[in-house]
Structure formats: C-alpha cells, structure tokens
Amino acid sequence: MLVTGFAPFGGEPVNPSWQVVASLPATIGGVKIAKCLVPTEFRRAIAAVAEAIEAGQPDVVLCLGQAGGRFRMSVERIGINIDDAAMADNAGAQPIDEPIAQPGPAAYFATVPVKAMVEAMRAAGVPAEVSNSAGTFVCNHLLYGVLHYLAAQGLATRAGFIHVPYAEEQVLDKPGKPAMAIETMARGVQAAIVAAVANKTDVKQVGGALD
Hints:
Layout: E1 2-6, H1 16-23, E2 27-28, E3 31-32, E4 34-38, H2 44-56, E5 60-66, E6 73-76, E7 78-80, E8 107-109, H3 114-123, E9 128-131, H4 138-153, E10 158-164, E11 166-167, E12 179-180, H5 182-198
C-alpha cells in the first residue's frame, strides 16, 4: 500500500497528514507500507503520486490531507472534477472554476470501502465519518487526479482519501478549533488500512445507521 501526506501550507508549520504518515510502521496487518510526501501544489501533487505508483506498483493508494476545522477523521467518498481555490497553493497558483482533467468525468468515487474503513476506525476508538465533499483545493485535486490517472492507465489499483483534523499543536493559537492527537489519527489510519485490504466490497451501514 502507498500512503501519502501533504507538506505544510497556509502558513502552518506542520501538516498533520504527513505527521501521521511518517509515524506509521513499515508493515500494518501484514501489508507493506510505502510512504510519499506530496507537495501542496496543484498538478505537482498528482505527478508526485503518479510517479510513486509507477515506482512501487501498489495494490492500494491511500492519500491523507489536512481539513482544519473538522472534528472527526473523514473518509472521502467522491472526488469532483473542479479546482476552485479560496487561497493559493504553495507555488502561488490559485485556479478558479477550472477542470482538473479536460476531458474527464464529472466525478470519481473512491474505490476503497469507505464505510468499512469508518466502521473500523470507530471500533478502534477514533472519531470518524464518511464525507461526501473533499472540497475544491489540492486535496480534492489529488483524490480526483489519482483516480483519473489509475483509470487512464487501466490499473486495478484501488484508491481513497482521508481528511484529518488539525493536530493539537496547531490550535494553541486557534481558540475553539477542534484538534486530534497525532497518535489517535495514526491509530485510525492503521485501522482503516486493515479494513481497506480486508474488504473488497463495502458494508451497507456504519455503526448501525446509514452515513
């Protein structure tokens, strides 16, 4: 499995997505873990992960990204074909209402079992949810871009995306903003990885109720 996290952006000194990825062990549930630090830049993000896929030929790709302000870890269900940035990326690019792939489908669904992953994360004691919006910044750009790349190459590799909240150290100067310990997020990701490998199809319900 290839697991990716982003470099810091928006003036933050750290990015919890990469902190989590860097903390993961070399194997999880018998699955070998490869790691990739992704630039928080439109286009370059997709290129970096595509290169890592070509080099490692993983069976599953799981990308992580920061979603400051969220209370729970969010397993994304869908990536949409639009860049609409409220701020510039780390290279100064700020696309507005631009397609990621032209031509390309309006959206791709993640090909990992999102509900099974959320169920496993909750069972591990980690707040988690299914999310139906990955936003329109570099995180959605990467989710859509990776799925589009895999489809274009005819690869059977499955792929998905998890948004993580701020790390605790990031909210020291952000009163009222939610945060989560890196150790807790890492535990959730490990549970999600095991579930992604174990479940080729998804469950219908999470925690006894549809999400």
